[in-house]
Design brief:
By secondary structure, the protein is α/β, with parallel strands linked by helices. It has eight helices and nine strands. It has one domain: 3-Layer(aba) Sandwich (Rossmann fold). The longest helix is centred in the middle third of the chain and has 29 residues. The model has no long low-confidence stretch (mean pLDDT 98). The structure holds NADPH dihydro-nicotinamide-adenine-dinucleotide phosphate (NDP). NADPH dihydro-nicotinamide-adenine-dinucleotide phosphate (NDP) binds next to helix 1 and helix 6.
Length: 253
Amino acid sequence: AAERLSGKIVLITGASSGIGEATAIDYLEATNGDIKLILTARRFEVLKTLKGKIAKDYPKASVHIETLDVTRTETIEPFIANLPEEFKSIDILINNAGKALGSDAVGSIDTEDIRGMMDTNVIGLIAMTQAVLPIMKAKNSGDIVNLGSIAGLDAYPTGSIYCASKFAVRGFTHSLRKELINTKIRVFLIAPGLVETEFSVVRYKGDKNAADSVYNNLEPLSAEDISDLIVYSTSRRQNTVVADTLIFPTCQA
Ligand code: NDP
């Protein structure tokens, strides 16, 4: 099935760590480097290091890195329009950039945190999709993979905004998939449980102890467990869409 991915152009948001980075590596691994990656995030230096590592391990691969903050929606269309020619015809969009900020009761959530989560997880994801869809529609082909969460299906206390954002991702993803059923554009929702990445460190704003406590008595998934599913899903035959997948650590309730 991996040969179906050969030569594809894959755009990943939030590729500087965690699931985004692992997904980049897994596409390279699956195609033996026969893939074109557009890797974006806010931290350019981290992307540069990743590109260097890829060049060493997969000399055949083409990699374009660029700073992209998905909350700066006015920069998204120019970014797409100015991609180097060989990366323009995007085949797979991985809408992965996302975050939780804080763990507060509704009355005490910082407005900046509310905006940070909604702007990244929802508005940014929608804006990326709107910018890439015309390319996919023009060739009547393409895959859009949205990172949801179990928090977008089963809400938990002190996660109200994150849950709201991921419920929004779920609704948007399913509506888009139905909107596109008469095309050859596929839309996927991948909804993980606990995965050990930088996610919790970001959530607790650098407090390592608070971040680590999330994994007490639980063995989380690794980023590679999720990227493996993303590569699996997008390498199915065109008649198949892995439309909505929950993926948990076996020990998570
Ligand atoms: P990480 O914190 O490791 O990665 C998040 C990525 O998003 C980073 O590369 C970060 O890069 C990027 N990012 C953050 N803000 C922006 C922005 N405004 N514009 C562009 N990129 C941004 O977390 P994960 O890998 O765990 O998270 C990936 C996705 O998976 C998220 O959507 C998350 O909600 C979802 N998820 C994670 C779970 C988990 O337990 N870890 C569980 C369920 C879902 P930079 O800072 O360089 O911009």
